[in-house]
Write a structure and sequence with these properties.
By secondary structure, the protein is mainly β. The chain contains three helices and 26 strands. The strands form eleven sheets. It has a four-stranded antiparallel sheet with strand order 19-26-21-24, with no helix packed on it. A four-stranded antiparallel sheet has the order 20-25-22-23, with no helix packed on it. The chain starts with a strand and ends with a strand.
């Protein structure tokens, strides 16, 4: 059995018996920092699993249940004495970190499943990845919304005869003998086909014949105006016109030599002969023309016989000398009128008299409407137009030359701020006081009977031209009323 030894400092040293012969004493070493026992070699364990102290088999280390004891923490180190903190699982990598040049990791194993099928019974269970017997992993394609995609390729397929206004599908291609090309259509979707050669059917019009026909049609079209065709009659046959219900239109007697004279028209009253030029020779009888309630246009000059002639409503370019009653006349240009000597006046009379309801278009006095102030005239004595706003209200501005100032001391009894003055043009009052000023536009003001309530340091200016007495009273007798009267 080993004996306790002391160092030179007389500190006890713990020794143990060598496990080689059970007798040779050996030192036990402790870590100088943690004071933990440093074990190197094999720890003796009895046949029943108990730890021995190496000296006496009766000295045993009791192994407690971890649930009911505080076990000692043990660190595992490598051959260099560095602590090993992780075990198994291959090299671990951090997501979104730069990859190593030659990474080391665990190989992925798949469970072979020649026919894929449902593995777990509940969504959210762990499931091992499956693959083919060649080691290829099964995958499932999904949309951005997570829906499974189970079919691919070929575009949208259609059945012959289906109605679809906006179909989608694969572009049709054709082969020209050397290259593959896309088939083209027009804007309506009709397939474009170039006919390399085509025999002309029997009886078909050639290009030359079509050109000749088009020329003839163009000549006919030139003679058509609207829905009417112009026809030149080379020979006019003789036609007998009956006197009854005669309807002759657009004829000029002097050139067409149609004789309408004597009693021809009189015998056929009411005959419509359209537009007619009447050439009544000199010395012939007068021709009576009735317009049938319409109008008659006379080209040229119309002479009026001496005397009074009523010719109704007429547009006359000039009036012959003499007295002529021509009824209602539209005068295009009004000539200058010279008043008789000694008169030199011409009275202008409106449509209505004074104090009568407005009617017609009476002569009125005009003013200039302007929102802005008009420009002043260049000199005194110039003619100027009165000024009004756009609603016709006359604009009047007051001008004064004299302002008389007075001061009235603050008082709690009514005092006169301004005496009555018919020459007054206006006034202003400034309350130079810390108390409220009550103003009345009559005699005797009170704090309950007033016209204007003027706060301290407030200002009032007359805007109505009041010329009567102005009284005032303060809430407390302090300060002054600064009064200016304009005349």
């Amino acid at each position: 059995m080993s004996q306790n030894k002391f160092t030179t400092n007389n500190n006890p040293t713990i020794v143990a018996v060598s496990n080689a012969d059970g007798e040779t004493p050996v030192y036990l070493y402790a870590d100088p920092v943690t004071h933990g026992l440093v074990i190197s070699g094999t720890i003796n364990v009895a046949a029943d699993g108990a730890m021995l102290d190496g000296v006496s088999s009766s000295i045993r280390a009791t192994v407690f249940d971890l649930t009911n004891s505080n076990p000692q923490s043990v660190a595992i180190v490598d051959a260099n004495g560095d602590q090993i903190s992780s075990f198994g699982g291959g090299t671990q990598y951090t997501e979104d970190a730069a990859a190593a040049a030659n990474p080391v990791g665990t190989a992925l194993n798949l469970i072979r499943a020649d026919t894929p099928a449902t593995i777990t019974s509940t969504d959210g269970d762990n499931v091992a990845q499956r693959g083919t017997n060649y080691g290829a992993a099964y995958t499932q394609i999904v949309t951005s919304g997570g829906a499974f995609v189970d079919t691919f390729g070929g575009g949208t397929q259609y059945t012959d005869g289906d109605a679809d206004a906006t179909p989608t599908g694969t572009v049709a291609l054709g082969f020209d003998g050397a290259n593959v090309r896309a088939l083209t259509t027009d804007a309506a979707g009709d397939l474009q086909v170039d006919v390399a050669s085509s025999a002309l059917p029997s009886g078909a019009a050639t290009s030359a014949l079509q050109t000749t026909g088009n020329t003839s049609l163009g000549t006919i079209a030139g003679a058509v105006t609207g829905t009417e065709m112009q026809v030149d009659v080379l020979t006019m046959p003789t036609t007998t016109v009956q006197a009854t219900d005669l309807d002759i239109r657009n004829l000029v007697f002097a050139t067409d030599k149609v004789d309408v004279s004597g009693s021809t028209l009189a015998a056929n009253s009411g005959v419509d002969i359209g537009d007619v030029t009447v050439n009544n020779a000199a010395g012939a009888s007068a021709v009576n023309i009735q317009d049938g309630g319409n109008s008659i246009t006379v080209d040229g000059t119309v002479g009026l016989s001496a005397g009074t002639n009523n010719i109704g409503d007429v547009d006359i370019a000039s009036i012959a000398a003499g007295d002529n009653n021509i009824g209602n006349v539209d005068i295009v240009t009004m000539p200058n009128v010279t008043l008789a000597a000694g008169t030199n006046t011409n009275e202008v009379v409106g449509d209505v008299a004074e104090d009568v309801a407005l009617a017609g278009n009476p002569v009125r006095t005009g003013v200039r409407a302007s929102q802005a102030e008009p420009t002043a005239m260049s000199a005194d004595g110039d003619v100027v137009t009165p000024w009004a706003d756009r609603r016709g209200r006359t604009v009047v501005t007051k001008q004064v030359a004299t302002g008389t100032q007075t001061s009235v001391a603050g008082s709690t009894s009514s005092v006169t701020l301004l005496a009555s003055n018919t020459s007054r043009k206006g006034f202003s009052i400034y309350n130079d006081s810390t108390a409220i000023l009550y103003i009345r536009f009559q005699a005797t003001a009170t704090t309950s009977n007033f016209s204007v309530k003027l706060q301290p340091d407030a200002y009032y200016e007359d805007a109505i031209g009041y010329t009567g007495i102005v009284d005032g009273i303060w809430a407390s007798a302090t300060g002054n009323a600064r009064v200016t009267e304009y005349s």
